[in-house]
Known about the structure:
InterPro entries: DnaJ_C, DnaJ_domain, DnaJ_domain_CS, HSP40/DnaJ_pept-bd, J_dom_sf. By secondary structure, this protein is of the alpha+beta class. It folds into 3 domains: 4-65, DnaJ domain (Helix Hairpins); 96-135 and 150-218, Urease metallochaperone UreE, N-terminal domain (HSP40/DNAj peptide-binding domain, Sandwich), CATH 2.60.260.20; 225-295, Urease metallochaperone UreE, N-terminal domain (HSP40/DNAj peptide-binding domain, Sandwich), CATH 2.60.260. Helices cover 23% and strands 26% of the residues. The protein contains 8 helices and 16 strands. The strands form 5 sheets. A 5-stranded mixed β-sheet has the order 5-4-3-8-7. α2 (16-30) runs antiparallel to α3. The relative contact order is 0.10.
Amino acid sequence: MRDPYDVLGVSKTADEAEIKRAYRKLAKKLHPDANASDPKAQDRFAELNTAHEILSDKEKRGQFDRGEIDAEGKPRAPEFTGFGGGGPRRGPGGFSGFDGDTIFESFSFGPEGARRTSRGGGGGFEDIGDIFGFGRQRRSAGGGFAPQPGADMEITLPVSFEEATQGASKRVGLPNGKQIDIKIAPGTREGHRMRLKGQGEPSPMGGPAGDAYVTISYASHPLFERDGDDLRQSLDVPLADAVLGAKVRVPTLTGAVELAIPAWTSGGRTFRLRGKGLPNATGGHGDLLARVNVVLPAEKSAELEELMRKLKGEAA
C-alpha cells in the first residue's frame, strides 16, 4: 500500500484541516458508486479510507511517522532473513524475513464457526480449539513449574461501513511477523472481538506465546454520519426537482437506489430508507435517513431571478 501522505496528496506537515479537506474531496471522486464501471474502484476507496484512518488519528500518525506502523496501520515486524523450509532464516545481522507464503494464515469468522488455513508447511485446517482456546490446554508434566506465557496483544481493526455490512477479508499484522487474513462476516457489528490463541507476544521464558485479540471498529465515512445503527446523509436535490417532484438516486451501503421526491419538497425534509443502515443487535439493519438539501442551478438564470422577484412581490 502507498504512503498515506501520497494517497491523500498532502505534505507531512499538513494539519488536521488540510487532511480532512483532502479526504472529503477524494472520497467524492473515488467512491465506488461514482465509479461503478471501474473494477478497481473499491480497492482505491479502501486505500483512501486506510490512509485517512492513520493520518486523522494523532497517535497513529505519530506511530507511522516514527516507523512503528506501516501504511496499512499494522505494526512493523522485525526484519528476518529466513532459513530453508519456509521458516525464518538467520542472516548476517540476525533473523529477518520469512519464506514466501509460509508466513500467511487465513482465519474466517461466521455462522459456521472459525477455522485457520496455513499455506505452505503442513497446510490444511487445524484444530479450532487449539487456535482459539476452546479445547486443548497446556499443562506442565506432573504439575510442575510452567514457564510464564507471553503477553496478550490487543489489535483494533478498522472496517468501512460497507465491509461490515457486506463482509470482507482484511489483513492483520501480528507481533510475530505473520500477516493473517481475517474474513469479516456480513453483518459484523462494531466492538466484535476475536481471540487468536498463541498469536500474541512470545514468552521470554520459553513458555507459550500470548494471545492476540482483534476488535472491530468502524472507520469514518465520507458520505454517511453514524447515529447508532442508523445512518444520516445530506441529499442534494435541484430546485426544479424539489418544486416539481422527481426520482433521485440515493447512495447506500449496498449500492444506489431510487427515491421519489414529491412535488413541493422543502429543504430539510428527511426521508427514511428502512434497512439501509448498519448491522444491529437483532440481526437486521438500521435505517438510512436522507435529509434534503435544495440546491440552485449551477449558472445564474435571469428568468429564475425574475420569477423569484414576482413571487416575493406577491407574498408581500
